[in-house]
Amino acid sequence: xxxxxxxxxxxxxxxxxxxxxxxxxxxxxxxxxxxxxxxxxxxxxxxxxxxxxxxxxxxxxxxxxxxxxxxxxxxxxxxxxxxxxxxxxxxx
Length: 92
What we know:
There is one protein chain. A hairpin with a 5-residue loop joins strand 3 and strand 4 (45-50). Strands 4-3-2-1-5 form a 5-stranded antiparallel sheet, with no helix packed on it. It has 1 helix and 5 strands, in the order E-E-E-E-E-H. The mean pLDDT is 81. Helix content is 25%, strand content 35%. By secondary structure, the chain is an alpha+beta fold.
């Protein structure tokens, strides 16, 4: 498959030809020759790839995936904020 085959607003687990890791990506936009992708792990990162580059699609994720995925990370962020608030300041 090619990057041009990916659809906007859909999450994919993909593996690039030159990568060993599986990435979670979504399409942000397309130009005449490229696709702007967002990779979500370990941190969100946006990058361009050529439409003609090949990619292995491991899985096209269903519509409920987005809610489930972001709920996991919202919970982790809430826990980190809570932990930071619990740490006594040096002035106390």
